[in-house]
Amino acid sequence: MLQLENLIFDAINEVIRNIFDDEVAEMLLGFLKENSSMSFEEKLRFFEESLPKILGSGAVIIEDLILETLYSKLGIKFEQKRKSFTEYVLDLMVHQVETHG
What we know:
Structural class: mainly alpha
Number of domains: 1
Number of helices: 5
Shape: globular
CATH architecture: Orthogonal Bundle
CATH topology: Non-ribosomal Peptide Synthetase Peptidyl Carrier Protein, Chain A
Strand content: under 5%
Number of strands: 0
């Protein structure tokens, strides 16, 4: 599971760094690295809740880019449904566990 968590963080990092300059990217990514007391799911939910506060309506585009990048890295087609960012990621984790044991 840790390998998948790292892949998820890598996808978030990749998209954020491709869009924003280093200073903004560090601000957006900082809590993911620092909050060791939070569970993986708590970090995802915090990221999802914080992004719109920082970026406004543009947060949805960033989330979609992260999800598309992540799904692509795993060789899975990303299909948009009415789910939150965190729900997509958690569903993906369950799918990976089911298909890879």
